[in-house]
Structures are given as structure tokens and as C-alpha cells.
# Entry
Amino acid sequence: MEPLSKFKINRLQIWLSFVFLFGLSLLTSKSALTFTSTILILWAFFDPTQRAVWTKDKKILFLVSLFPIAIILNLFSVMGYSSSLKVITSWSWPLFAAPTLIIFNDLRARKILAFALAAGLLLSNVYSLYLLYENLIHNSANSFMTENFRIGSFWNIGRWGVFSGFSVLTLFLILHENVKPKLKNYLTVLLGMTSFSFLLSNTRGPLAALIIILSLLSFTDKRILKNALIMFSILFTFFIANDSFSERIRSIFSVNLNTEKLTSTNQSNASRLDMWKVAFDFYKEQPLFGTGFENTKVPLENFLEKMGPEYTEKYTKAEFSYNDQHSSYLNILIQMGIFFFIYCWGGILIIFLTQLKKYFSTKDTYSRLFLAGIIYNLIVSIFYSSFSSYESILLIIPLALVGKKNATSSVTSNL
# Structure
């Protein structure tokens, strides 16, 4: 019996080690994140104790089902089986709903994950500050906080903006819980560092999402209102003190309708609007099953050739992407088709509205945290194709956990 007992202990330690490594890698390493998340997913599927937990949850089953349904429907897409293979190799993130629930239901694992996430965030902030130093030393010609002055971290600038914005929101809400004074001090410092790093990323979509969600949260708690006003005041001071940054923020609203099309004086906005226009026209070519996951280039080139040089010149002259519609909703619609679009986003909307209704009656702060994370990601998804990439995990996790009770037991005690 002693060797068996030791095996159980070692097995548990190995699982908890992967939980820690996953948390540490989420903000620091793409390859490590892929590896550790895959291990945790396989563990959740093949370990009988863990599988018995998540297979009883209808919400988790829906999120997990997105993966096999995407594989099957992609077989009928324009690009066929190659798109299904790309789903298998690049979009297994919905499956992470299963280990998410397992970790949340285990108090020990959740504490380990929280520590690892905080450590990873700290490392990411420090690296971001180092990149700031490097940028100021070697690229002094770029005016501070202009459109060309953008600082990332271990992730590229766009993804770091999404991740750091989500981190700011999460830390902000956690600090409104009953946190021990010493821990609260640490988290406050971490929030300050993350907020600064987030601003350095100069990403407009996540910033707009953060402003909207903090404004909405202000109606739920007087303390949140007070602290949100403090954050807005700091942001406004930064806004008026730096002309380049203020111009960057004002460009969010730079949209106008000329005689020919909806466009913008801001090149980035204009390009995105052009891509959206082409996406809506292009969708009509393959409405049911789409082009196939990450397979729009060839069908889109054929479509533009069919539309003629005048149309192509009008909408694709600058910063046009043949692989990315720069919106998660359009990405899913164009690449996966209307059937998967309705199943995926319809299911997510039902989860969100159901849990929002429950929150209004319970005022549960855990639900508020996860609902805020869902809203943040839904707004960001308007401007970024984040749901088709690594960032989708930031939506899968709160969707999996919203409405769950605070864990006090240990699911892994039987490992």
C-alpha cells in the first residue's frame, strides 16, 4: 500500500505543478501556455475523478462542444479538411473550460494558480518596463505615446493590450473584496504597474472596453464608483498632459460617411472599416459553412478578382488583411459560416444573459467579476479577432465560472 500511496501523492503534485506552470505561462510564454494547457485538458478528460466533475455541468459541456462541432462543420467549408486540421492544431481553447472548473473547485489548486498568475503578471510588467527603457534609448525619434510608440511585453503589442487590460479589470475588482491588508498592498502595487504597462501598449480597443465596463460597474457599488472616478481622473490627466496620447484616444471616434463609403481620417480605422465592408460582401459567397478556419486568403483573393479592379482598389489599398477580418464576430461568420456562428455566439449570449439575470437577484461578487470579464471580451471581440486565437481563453474561463459558488473543497483529494 505504501508505493500506491506515494504514487497518489506524486500524481497530485505533478498536476498542481502543471496548474502553476499554466498560470505562470499565461502572460509570459506562448509555447509553455500551449503545452501546459494541453496537459491540463488531457488530464481533465482522461482522469475519471476530474471527468466526473465537468461532465455534469451543461455550461461546460456546451463550451467543450465548440471544438468538435467546429471540426465537423469545417469539413463542409470551402477549404475542407485542411480547415478542420487547423481547428485541431490551433483552436482547442474551448476545451480548457473543463480544467478551468476543476481548478476553481479545488481551493489548493486555485491558490496556486492565483500566485502563479500574479508572478507571471509581475514578470510581464517588469519586461514591459525594460522594453520601454530600450525604446526610449534607441527610438527617441518617436514621440512618446504616439501611434508608433507602443510597448508590448512577452506577448506582441496587440495581445499584451488585451491581456493587460483584462488583468487591470480583474485586479481592480479583486481589490474590492475582503482582502488581507498586506496582500491588498501587494495587489495595489501590481495594479498600478499593470495599468501603466497597459497604457504603454497604446491599444485602443481594450482601453475602450475597460472604460465602458468600469462605467457599468460603477452602478453596482459605491466603492467601485469612487475608485473608478480616481482611475478616470488619472487617465484624464494623462490625456490632457500628452497631446499624442489624447489624439490617439480621439481617433477611436474618427468615423465619417463620405459620398462613397464609411471611412475615417485615421488610417487604422479606415482600413478596419474597409475590411468589414469586404467581409460582409464576401460572406454572401459561402454563407453556410464559410471559407474554413484560418483559410480565407485564397477564397478572398478569388472574390476580389471577381469583383473587379475598381472594387479592389477602393477597399484594399492600404493595411488590408486577407487572413484576418479584425473582428471576432466577422472572423467566425466568414470562416466558420452561419451555422457555427449562431451556435457559438448564440450559446455564449444565452449563458451571459442567464447569469446576468441571476446576478441582479443575488448580487454575488464572484458572478460580477466573471460577468465583467465576459463583457470586456465581448467588446474587445468587436475590434480584434481574439476569439480565434490565444486570447479566447480570457473569454472561456469567465464563461466557465460565472455563477459558480466559491470553492472550499478539494476535488483533487482523490487523485
Summary: The beta strands are 256-257, 262-263.
